[in-house]
Amino acid sequence: MMINLTRAPLLVLVSALALCNGPVSAQTTVKVGISAPLTGIGAADGKDMENGVRLALEEANAQHLKLGGQDVRFELASVDDQGDPRVGVQVAQKLVDDGVVAVVGYYNSGVALPSAPIFARAGIPLIDPAATNPAITKQGLKNVFRIIATDTQNSGAAGQYAVNVTKAQRIAVMDDRTAFGQGAVEEFKKAVKAAGGNIVSEEYTNDKAVEFNAQLTNIKAANADLLFYSGSNKQAGLVIKRLRQLGMHTQFVGSGGIADSIFTSIAGTAAEGAMAWEYGRPVESLPQGKAFAEKFKKRFGADPLTFAPFSYDCAWVAIDAMKKANSAKPEIFMNALRTTEYTGITGKISFDSSGDLKNPTSTLYQVRNAKWVPVTTVGAQ
After folding, report:
1. Are residues 145 and 157 in the same domain?
2. What interhelical angle do 85-97 and 109-122 show, nearest 10?
3. pLDDT tens per residue across span 49-80
4. What does pTM read for this prediction?
């Protein structure tokens, strides 16, 4: 057999280079999804959530983790659900098709409810940092986890406080008819009635409204001494501003995300004395809270809003479960998620049989001198 000598030196050279370089280390890409409203009414909070997850993944990559003996690099797969249930379902399927191993979401309860089953069918864990309707974890799905108090706990605390501490005698409620808004008001009403309180007016709007004269006129006619509102923070600012313009001295109490800076900026000085029940403890009161706020601002040039710490913790809970299971395969690390005992920025995280946080907390804030000041925290951690 004749050997082609002209090609032999090339073969030797290639072999020599391979020996010099040594074996090439394979790196596995692990995609973690985030679904949030990145446009529209909730865009500020949605971006805040996205950045919380992004920061966690960047920190994990800096640790050069190995899973199953392979180097892994975490990659963020972000979708804009626009706060719309129909869009949310579509982009949920996109995340599945893109091969994510875990998803952080949602901001809107109305998006979470129809989207969660999509991930359940695909066997992908969904870790919830912000959507609080109790029904999200009551659908019989084994892949859904939540690291924030539900409306039962947060709005329940608000209802008890309104009756037992503020001593409100004539209470009005108003919501934006979203799954979050309506659900939170229902839980508030249950707590008020259980505490022996009196609901004198029940009003509602929609999540696109900017004018509330009819509702506030009815509340004024009912001589309500406290209004509990549940809806977007932008609307909350507009409601309280109009309430003051109408000369109403009714106490204003909001729920869930309302104590973001955007609310104070819209309501201005009219917000003085307004109260809001928020999920969790004040970040600055937590051992790692100040450090988190500083590194978040350094990375993104803005202070974290309500849900960035929760989203950050969601991502790290997923990563921690992968580390314990030594695998990025959802069917393997899902069990580690169910038995999670993790201390994050927001506190101690472990789940009950439904996937809800075992020891949720809620904090009441009040506007004093144009700043939100924590008044009291309920719940044990």
Report:
1. no
2. 30
3. 999 999 999 999 999 999 999 999 999 999 99
4. 0.85
